[in-house]
Design brief:
Length: 419
């Protein structure tokens, strides 16, 4: 039995914020026009990064969205499960009735029958008696809580054997300027004032924000520009806003008995992509993966969040051999033919890590190989097609190894789970 996580004055203010300004700002009728896609909680990512592409797609998936807000992650996952006839349910938990009502209206618009909603607090999970889950999403939540480490431990206890989580926390360097304005608004819009009055002050500050303010220079996020009242409030007036360097985030996971199966995207945390100097690359080669991630975050300076899939320590399920001719590769989202079109004449794929675009080299044959990846054809099928184009098996294996490992690190090509 876990102890309830205590709340405090700031937490009470946070609850009031999300009743006044449910976040993110969403119109349920927009569900007729588009599906918002992101990480974590993309179904194919869960299959691959949590379950190692070994869990049968016919096995029911029980998922918890812990702190669902207005429902972006929950709606995405439930919709993807419905579209692929995946059995299971998505349980949406949030203490804000207004946020839940918006998420519920979005689900109704989509006619989702595999999603349900529970009003409740992460501070008292035991009393909710939710049971165990194969997958837990806690995206953009931990960094606002009074005791994130305790809450994460409590969530870990809700994981079924071999289960995992998708997490997102704020990162400090990519949010440069945010905390400066927050500090000013602590004085100009004190927390003792009503949310509407605080928001009015923040809008006035933003209209007069000096050109020298670091927030004006930061293009790594846009809530204050396009996120409406809820976005502006959440960014600049949130009563509690922690950020974690990648080292601090990994320590948080370790304290809860968890470890990352994937930092998203994996290549983002490889500093060699941003440092072409051969001598520097040799030095990087001597670092362990944690040290490399720390260097990448510090050098790029544009990571505003850290997204990770995590599992219990020592419980990571390795995916099948990508070189096995029976393995089935699948595009994460963008069709292979579209990704191939993005390749340049020099056979590089321009890839955006936030505000940094890096040319990623691929084999020339990747341009013809990518359109073949449809989630049905096996690696052996791909080899057979390329053999008709004069590519022998030994050469195909080299091409496929470079193509797959590169695009896996960009979270663009994964392996399909079995039926």
């Amino acid at each position: 039995m876990t102890m309830p996580v205590e709340t405090d004055t700031r937490d009470t203010e946070l609850a009031a914020q999300y009743e006044a300004y449910p976040y993110p700002e969403r119109n349920p009728q927009d569900e007729t026009k588009r599906l918002l896609i992101g990480s974590p909680s993309h179904l194919r990512e869960i299959d691959y990064w949590v379950f190692g592409a070994r869990r049968s797609r016919s096995k029911p998936l029980r998922a918890l969205v812990a702190g669902c807000g207005t429902g972006d992650g929950a709606i995405m996952l439930a919709t993807q499960m419905a579209r692929s006839d995946r059995p299971g349910e998505v349980v949406c938990l949030d203490r804000s009735q207004r946020a839940l009502s918006i998420a519920q209206a979005r689900a109704t618009t989509r006619k989702l029958g595999n999603i349900r909603f529970i009003q409740g607090s992460l501070s008292d999970l035991d009393s909710l008696k939710l049971g165990l889950f194969d997958y837990i999403d806690c995206c953009g939540v931990l960094h606002h809580l009074p005791h994130p480490a305790a809450t994460l431990k409590n969530l870990e206890q809700l994981l079924a054997p071999h289960g995992g989580m998708g997490l997102m926390v704020y990162a400090p360097y990519g949010r440069t300027g945010v905390y400066m304005v927050q500090e000013a608004l602590e004085q100009l819009a004190p927390h003792t004032e009503a949310p509407a009055a605080r928001l009015d002050t923040a809008k006035r500050v933003m209209r007069s924000l000096p050109a020298t303010a670091w927030l004006r220079q930061n293009g790594n996020f846009g809530d204050h520009l396009s996120g409406g009242d809820a976005g502006l409030y959440d960014l600049l007036l949130n009563p509690r806003d922690r950020s974690y360097t990648i080292g601090a985030f990994l320590d948080l996971l370790n304290g809860a008995g968890l470890e990352p199966s994937c930092l998203m995207e994996p290549a983002r945390y490889d500093p060699t992509l941003f440092l072409p100097d051969p001598r520097l690359r040799n030095r990087i080669g001597a670092l362990d993966w944690r040290e490399k991630a720390i260097v990448a975050e510090a050098l790029t300076g544009n990571m505003a969040t850290h997204v990770a899939y995590v599992v219990r320590q020592g419980a990571r399920t390795p995916p099948p051999d990508f070189n096995d001719f029976h393995a089935v590769p699948v595009m994460r989202e963008i069709p292979g033919i579209e990704l191939a079109k993005q390749m340049r004449a020099d056979h590089t794929l321009p890839f955006a890590f936030g505000t940094i675009v890096v040319p990623i080299p691929l084999p020339p044959q990747a341009r013809g190989l990518l359109p073949l990846i449809d989630g049905k054809q096996t690696v052996g099928d791909l080899a057979a097609v390329l053999s008709t184009r004069g590519v022998p098996e030994d050469k195909f294996r080299k091409i496929w190894k470079e193509t797959f490992l590169t695009l896996e690190s960009l979270n663009r090509v994964l392996l399909q789970s079995p039926l």
